[in-house]
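Milestone M4 deliverable, item 7.
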Amino acid sequence: MIVKEKFDLLKGVDNIIKLPSSKIKEVEVEKGPRKIFVVLEMMKSRMSHYTKDALFKLISFERARSKISVVTLPTYSLPVTYNVPTKSQVINLSPFGIDDIISTKPGPQNLYALMVYSIVFSDIVEGNFKVSDKYSSPIAGYFTSILLRLFGKEYGLLGSFSSEIGKLKFLTNSYILASFFGLTGAAAFKRASAASAYDHRQIADKLPKYDFKNINDFILSLSELGVMPNLNRHQFAAKVLRQFQFNFMPALEDGARFVASIATSDIKGSNVISTYLHKYNERDYNRILEISKSLFKRR
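Output delivered:
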């Protein structure tokens, strides 16, 4: 999977950070990983999740916890990232409005969700776990379901303009192949066409205009090719933000974030990522969830 440098919808927020060890130490919460372990240990007997064994194995050993940095970074808007120089998972407390971990803040379910997200994200970023491009189809299918739910009624895709759904599926597959897996050009368009059952030859002369690695161009293609006329990035981002909240926004641009978000949404009682994501397309959701299940089985 491609790891994005920055997010366009979040106005240039870094996906991963590059702080030297000295700078990370300045913002670290004292004994932060140990505090995560203490809080989660109290709920261990009540947890029944496929990530449980691997997660508690990680946080139970001080040596393993040394790769986790709990920080307060008010200038960074996301609760989880990865720091390249120290090769560490980063849990950022600032988005929760706190500067330390206690039993009730940010809460055990949220801490558990942050750890699941962080493990999945860091394993993909580090290349410890490879996500096959065979998953482009269910990811694009799920992505399409979200777009139909958010914009289908407004643009008539569920009614008089339902004929445009095939084109929507094709453009979404093209975006996922390029943006998440780096597959572009004629071969990618052919693959997207097969996955969507849409004959892209009728718009083939227009496709080279768009860089499908970039979500702004994807949104532009939806607008200019008649799927969602006059849609712009601001309308797109505003509607996604209202429906899914801020922490899900990066998942629309980065494959590792997408897989981590789906994994985290399966944790009840957490509000890090909305826990109702499965409702948009349960079949493809469960296929995407297989990625993180495989990842944790290998740990």
